[in-house]
Amino acid sequence: MVDDLSTPEQTVQLYVEVEEGDKLAALSRIIDTTNGFYGLIFARTKLAAEEIAQKLIERGYEADSLHGDLSQAQREKILNRFRSRRTPILVATDVAARGLDIADLTHVINLSPPQDPESYIHRIGRTGRAGKEGTAITFVTPEEVRRLRLIRDLTGTPIEKHTLPGAETVIRWNREKIRSLLEERLENLEGEDDPYSSLAEELLKDLSPRRLVAELIRFAFPRDLDKALYPEIKEPCRESDEGIDRVKIFFARGSMDDFTPETLNEYLARKTEIDGARIKILTVMEKFSFFTVPENEAEKVLSCFAAKGRRKRPVAERAKGQGDAPPPSEASSAEPSDQVIEAEEEQPSPPDKEP
Fold first, then answer.
1. What is the pTM of this model?
2. Is 335 helix (H, G, I), strand (E, B) or coil?
3. What pairs with residue 284 in β-bridges?
4. Does residue 40 sit in the same domain as residue 143?
């Protein structure tokens, strides 16, 4: 254990084993089952921070991203909203969060384990301050488990495994939050002589009160009680713990090519003739993706998507680092997936675009 590494005593440290493609869903469940969630979420790259924040916004959360490419004015505007809790969710990179001092955070969430114990300590030290309890949660894929173990061993603190709540539990939480919100608003009504009350009287004459209230709740909270929006999150199989070495692959296609984790897995299995269960999709970004395959299958993937004919650049390459952003030379413009990959053998490659 390193002597100068210590974690806050008031911070509960947890980890969740989850596949890369399920991290957003896992994050949503933690937010939805926390009263007054006020959290700082760490992403590895600017791209990842922006994308996670945008996807949270699309799901109905008040969120923002903080990274090094923002101007000072933009940074201050974002931090002011976060400090006032108008935006209770901030997705940030380590560089952007350096020196950030925010009081009363309920959560710090690492979308992936940081590269070193010092970064881990700095991140989680932002919650559990001034005698208040806080929670630090780290998401880990099978490929990241060893790094989290190293952090745990070097800091000498327990990091307990956490089980994500199921869909039924999340729905129950959302029901109670809706109920509390409506009861609070009704208690604060000053009178019934207003246009809304008169409209309510007209509607109640012609409609079932039960059906009317149900439709109003559905209109105001369209996502909160829909079980279909909380699909099952399966705990990943830790093949790496069984002595199987895996290779991380950069793939120059992403969501702009209509790929999702599921369709990318199916496509790779079909093209490479590798069992889809042996292909682990890590992340699908806008213009590129990452996945892993067993070491003995890697060459089959690289050969299948190697540079051919006039396609000067391979579509798949061994990843050069552990982050979620590709090297600048690897970023690809978006084209239709299957047909274009095959057609590139006969046509010039389009110019690169930066992610």
1. 0.66
2. coil
3. 289
4. yes
Same structural domain for residues 290 and 326? Answer: yes
In a domain, 4, yes or no: no
Between 343 and 138, the more confident residue is: 138
The domain total for the chain is: 3
User: Per-residue b/e over 153-175, b at no fewer than 16 CB within 10 Å?
Assistant: ebbebebeebebbebeebbebbe
pLDDT in tens, 144-192: 888 898 888 888 888 999 999 999 999 999 999 999 999 988 887 766 6
Indicate whether 152 belongs to any domain. Answer: yes
Matching residue, tokens 């996807």: 55
Integer CA distances (angstroms), 325 to 197, 235, 307, 332, in order? 53, 25, 21, 12
Non-local (6+) Cβ contacts of 63 within 8 A are 53, 56, 57, 87, 89, 90, 91
Question: 164 is written with which tokens?
Answer: 């994500």
Among 38, 42, 102, residue whose Cα is nearest residue 67: 42
Q: Which two structure tokens, joined as six digits, stand for 109?
A: 């969430």
Where do runs of H (alpha helix) occur along the chain? Answer: 23-32, 46-58, 72-83, 94-97, 117-124, 145-155, 167-187, 195-206, 209-220, 261-272, 295-304, 337-343
For residue 169, the model assigns a pLDDT of 94
Distances (CA, A) of 274 to 13, 268, 286, 300, 306: 38, 8, 24, 9, 16
% the chain with pLDDT above 90: 45
